[in-house]
């Protein structure tokens, strides 16, 4: 006979005495990368397990968009344009759209800014035109982005090492600097992938200097700063740098060993520029 479910979940918060069905049972809200998402995410996952993704998202308070069934998106109509024009976000059942809706709730200003830029770019392009660098960058960050937050004197050496793919310096020599920095995940596809962590999972990181070390749970302040940073000229300039997220100190037990970073299939050297 199976053991009864644990009646407590995440920092002692009480949960119903029924086990969450998959896929929501697979989310481990104690993971360090989910710390900024935990307060809103735990009750939302509970609601989604009971009533489905769409109904749970429709109950979110203070969200800048409403949520509707995927079937309301007209055939041939751009997803981003639909959201911009109607204020409604189409939803499919599952973790991908669950995390997307959660991001609309936690980072409303940044999501609005990305959607606005996408819709404006779509409106000025022929339907069959290539996406272009701006739309590509918006999609990449929306799906797989993360933000590196730290004071200037901390973020500058970390960013230099990250851009150079100097992993030993970034994660070993500069390991103490990470105590004054935060990596905050943003991309909903990235969050979905990390439900089942693998060493190779990589985020595309945007540097965001701040005057003081922010609390990773202070999402309102992070959201305001990030939205201001997401300008067309910034995004079109390819401002991101890839970072295997399980290399972040404190995020994965195995990275306490320096040899963790010797895996060149994950911690790859920077590409050399062609002459």
What is the compact description of this entry?
The protein is α/β, with parallel strands linked by helices. It folds into 2 domains: 31-129, no CATH class; 139-262, no CATH class.
How does this model look, in words?
With 275 residues, the chain is of the alpha/beta class. It folds into 2 domains: 31-129, no CATH class; 139-262, no CATH class. 40% of the residues lie in helices and 12% in strands. It is built from 11 helices and 8 strands. It has helices spanning 38-51, 53-58, 79-86, 95-106, 108-123, 132-144, 152-163, 167-173, 188-193, 219-229, 232-235; strands spanning 8-9, 13-14, 66-69, 88-91, 145-150, 182-185, 202-209, 241-244. The strands form 3 sheets. It has a 4-stranded mixed beta sheet, sandwiched between helices. It has a two-stranded antiparallel sheet with strand order 1-2. Strand 1 and strand 2 (13-14) form a beta hairpin. Helix 1 (38-51) packs across helix 4, helix 3 (79-86) packs across helix 5 (108-123) and helix 5 packs parallel to helix 10. The chain starts with 7 loop residues before the first strand and ends in a 31-residue tail after the last strand.
């Amino acid at each position: 006979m199976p053991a009864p479910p644990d009646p407590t979940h995440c920092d002692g918060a009480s949960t119903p005495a029924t086990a969450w069905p998959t896929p929501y049972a697979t989310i481990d809200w104690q993971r360090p990368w989910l710390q900024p998402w935990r307060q809103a995410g735990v009750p939302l996952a509970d609601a989604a397990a009971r009533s489905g993704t769409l109904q749970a998202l429709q109950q979110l308070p203070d969200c800048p968009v409403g949520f509707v069934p995927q079937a309301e998106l007209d055939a041939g109509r751009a997803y981003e344009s639909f959201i911009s024009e109607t204020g409604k976000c189409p939803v499919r059942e599952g973790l991908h759209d669950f995390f997307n809706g959660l991001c609309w709730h936690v980072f409303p200003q940044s999501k609005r800014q990305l959607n606005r830029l996408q819709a404006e770019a779509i409106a000025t392009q022929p339907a069959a035109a290539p996406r272009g660098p701006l739309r590509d960058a918006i999609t990449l960050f929306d799906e797989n982005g993360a933000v590196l937050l730290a004071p200037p004197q901390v973020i500058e050496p970390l960013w230099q090492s990250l851009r150079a793919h100097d992993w030993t310096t970034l994660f070993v020599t500069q390991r103490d600097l990470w105590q004054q920095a935060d990596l905050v995940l943003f991309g909903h596809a990235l969050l979905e992938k990390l439900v089942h962590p693998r060493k190779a999972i990589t985020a595309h990181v945007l540097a965001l200097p701040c005057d003081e070390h922010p609390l990773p749970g202070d999402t309102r302040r992070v959201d305001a700063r990030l939205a201001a940073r997401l300008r067309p000229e910034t995004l079109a300039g390819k401002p991101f740098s890839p970072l295997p997220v399980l290399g972040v100190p404190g995020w994965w037990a195995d990275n306490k060993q320096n040899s963790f970073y010797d895996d060149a299939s994950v911690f790859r050297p920077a590409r050399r520029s062609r002459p």
